[in-house]
Amino acid sequence: MQLHSTILPKKTWVTFLWLFYLFLFSFPSFAQTYKISGTVVDSRTKETLIGVPIIIENRNGSGISSDEKGRYSLTLPKGDYTLKVDYIGFENKRIKISLSQDIIQNIELVQTTIGLGEVVVSAERPDANVSAPQAGIEKMEIQKINKIPVLLGERDIIKTIQLMPGVQGAGEGSSGFYVRGGSSDQNLILLDNVSLYNASHLMGFFSTFNSEVLRDVTLYKGAMPAQYGERLASILDVQQRNGDNQKYHVAGGLGLIASNLNVEGPIQKGKSSFIIGGRRTYADAIARLSGAKDAQNAYLYFYDLNMKLNFALSDKDQISVSGYLGRDKMVLKDAAELNWGNTFLTTTWSHTFNRKWTSRTSLSYNQYDYYFGMEIGMNLNGTSKIKDYGFKQEFQYQQGKNSQWRVGLTSTYHDLAPGNYNLDSEQKNSVDLYHRYSSENAAYISNQLKITDNLEVIYGLRASAFMALGKGQYYTLDNNNEVVDSVWYKSGKVVKTYINLEPRLSAVYKLNDVSSIKAAYARTTQNMHLLSYSAQGTPFDRWTSSSNNVKPQIADQVSLGYFRNFSNNMFEFSIEGYYKDMRNQMDFKDNADIEGYDVIETELLSGKGRAYGIELSLKKRLGRLTGWIGYTLSKSEKKIDGINEDRWYNAFQDRTHDFSIVGMYELNPKWTLSATWVFYTGNAITYPSGKYQINGKDVMYYAERNGYRMPDYHRLDLGATCLLKKTPKFQSELVLGLYNAYGRENAYMIQFRTNTKDPSKTTAYQYSLFTFVPSVSWNFKF
Q: 642: Cβ–Cβ under 8 A, 6 or more apart, which residues?
């Protein structure tokens, strides 16, 4: 077995010494203390509430927020205390406690308004922008996401994420996104802690997420905590709701191209619950009914199903089962068929050992696959598939009121089938590319420590071990990327092992009650890589894994920011700068061919990358008018020998300027208005620098890689929500939208062709997708 270890630079050893110092510092002196712990829930639905601030009065505002499972824990000396709970959307609560022993104090909060969907679910406390130690994080409120105008009225969390500073959309009609100069495959997208390899529907026009069943959405774009890994740029952590364990509810919506229906309620009242949500589009069916000739032989639709079951076995044990099934189909009768989709099932067991120790154990199965078939005088079809089998074990230890530990390990077995192609002709040719098997493992430890009233840190270490495994043929390449030898490995045989240490550190220093400085450092690694010619990405892009020739991508990122709140946390301002150094960055060599080819490594070149920028954000969280303004000034580059004459060149996702404005205004109790405006620099792209002729045919000549720019992009979207009816048992609303309100013809694609009138000239043709796109939908809940 071959072993590869990353040699740690001097700055990393300095980081380790700092982490060791914090480890020693985190253990306080012994004193007689007692613990108050419990769970915060909605009094009506009994669903746990995340990020609820629980403040101890007359102790300088000290306290804690409920975690991702709604739990909290405080350790205090013997005495009498008053807990203050103020949470947006709920009535304020005061709880008097006489502490002489460990006690459990569950907290039930009462909604301030009647009706479903009124609660703002957020995993952050009101002053988290200033006080939270985690840097480079965005938490999104589901209620506000649902009011932002989007394409064809389909509410979409990924489209909302693209409006955040430091996050850029992959382009018109795409659900892909770039974070701080990283490519789209460098984002790990999790739904109930299971990764999704393709989080889009209809070639990227919509995402896989049904916002009606979601509870919490968090994006880590900086120093991600040690419990996360496997990608370089970001983690998008999306969690589904548990469902109401007291009453049954039905909610749904009817739109121009899609409908959804969601049902939730108790399985055993007070002890278990379920939630099931489904969506389906029908634009093609409507087109056929209208008599459109082009639609009579075509099918274009997607559907998805979300499910979560939650069981409270006892006061100490809870089990949840989550599942997802999504599928897209594009069919042109007697010509072509494309379909793709995700499927997963995961089970999580949460257990409380005592007042300090809790654990969480998860098992998961995940599959992504696609199929295509074409009639081109003969039948050509192909499939590709990725299967993952995952395990995760995590322990949490509450060490006093100022220190919380996480310790865990994860393991995922990947079965990657890059392609099986069949050509039904007289010769009946077929190609079955070798599967690539691998085992991706990690162990981590982290501590959130409040050192002083002003200084709080999250520090940790993640050790990752990736093993490329047989069965299959692996190749040896020379310096010119040509195959010189090959070896067949039996099933389970280790081909190559990569071990990397990934230190993480994030800190906040409060200058006063309303302002702070945050700094962070993180190393991340990535062993699953997406190979795509398309900048936006397609469902049929090819995934590959680290091997004896493809090394793990590695990134070191540092960030520093200033955060300031105004008017009792009504306004939030931040300015944050970052620098990211990346190694083993891949790109295609000139004229590369990746389809139907086993030795994909011969078509790739690797080198280094860098990304840096400044992000500014101004948010208004409270009042009739809410929203934010975001601006990013950034640069993303690569330097790979064999490309662009070995000089630095722009990565495709490089954008100098990215600007967004989002506003939501409650005109009156019945009407809410919303608008978004975006502007960004056009993507870097390779255009032909000239042309020449071969056998009388024009051939374009390409010189500098990504040396040109697409036209700048900008767009205005408008939306309005009208509350039609609202009673304690029923609520309905009408949602109106106008996408691209001033009809800007933004460039989706630019092609270069020989001018038919003057063959000596070349003409550029711009293709646009959307101008004015109105939408209307009706939503109901009871």
A: 589, 605
